[in-house]
Amino acid sequence: MAKSVYLDHAATTPMRPEALEAMARVLSEDFGNPSGVHKRSRQARELLDDARDRFASVVGASPHEIVFTGCGTESLNLAMRGSAINSVAISAIEHDAVRETAAAMGRLGATVVEIPVDGEGVVDVGALDRDHGPVDLVAVMAVNNEVGTVQPIEEIGRRCALDGSLFLVDAVQALTWVDVRPIVEVADFTAFSAHKFGGPKGVGALVVRGGRVIEPLLYGGGQEQERRSGTQNVAGIVAMAIAAELTDRDRVVDTARISRLRDRLVDGLVAHVTGCVETVPRHVKVAGSAHVCIEGIASEELLVALDHADVCASAGSACASGALHVSPVLLAMGITKEQALGSLRLTLGTTTTDADIDAALAAIPLVVDRLRRS
Ligand code: PLP
Hints:
Layout: E1 5-6, H1 17-29, H2 39-59, E2 66-69, H3 72-81, E3 87-91, H4 96-107, E4 111-115, H5 127-130, E5 137-141, H6 153-163, E6 166-170, H7 181-186, E7 189-193, E8 204-208, H8 223-226, H9 234-272, E9 276-278, E10 289-294, H10 299-308, E11 311-312, H11 328-332, H12 337-340, E12 343-347, H13 354-373
Parallel strand pairs: 1-11, 3-4, 3-5, 5-6, 6-7
Antiparallel strand pairs: 2-8, 7-8, 9-10, 10-12
The structure holds pyridoxal-5'-phosphate.
């Protein structure tokens, strides 16, 4: 396959080589079922226990608070549907994994309210008390997947504690960019997904703070302390723990380097593409996120043309079908439909190089120009 410039790390990241190597080794050599009694099983269980300890240490939790799941979406569903709640407040910029789960709970009779965000995509904390009474559960993401805004999680956590609300944090986009320990500290539930930080797809985790009770979504053999039945994906979990450790170890250095690349990319686009504006100021967002709106350009056409030019980009949220819709996140921030339709999300990661930025800056202005002339 031709080498393309990959600027879609918020969608998924390439696996860290160390994680990939460990995963392959576990799959081929340590394939035992961790729930059994014989030697092979014991080996697998040791690997699972070790991975649990290591992942717990990275996120600042106790090992027994970790529930391994199949993905971020499952972790979020487990926290929301597994809590006995009648009312839920979600921010206006949540991922569909939270938004659609809340909608489903609403159809079953729960009260669902939306917490507004400001023009920079930051949750209006005051609205929690101002717009409605206390709710059973509040769900807010730590880092937005479209525009990259970092949310005031600790402040929201304090409010929830005062109100007696359970607090769920979607930290799926966070672990790469921020130390998640203070988040886990204030949340009752925190959701993670391995493929967003150099681990494999199909593995996630939910941190359930001590004493919080959840009803499982999956019943069966009682794995994960009766909270998620099903034989654990030992290889994937081992790889996730390694990826999390490496991410945590390298975060400060990686973030500084990637932030410099992101700044060069955005400055270059704003300078060389007429009508290109940065959607959110950089000081409110994570280092790897670049999001712009380009006047008079349709995202779908731009993405296809960029793909032909070997640049992998996104417009924000994509449905499973790959079809794009006007982003509710951008609309919630007060961006007009016309502007939102011209959005371009470029997300960088640990494998992004100066050469990638050079190639993107060479390709994007030309592609936009060509689209405008055609
Ligand atoms: N939450 C956020 C913020 C995300 O960006 C994603 C994935 O894009 C998810 C949840 C869902 O994670 P997963 O793909 O592991 O189900």
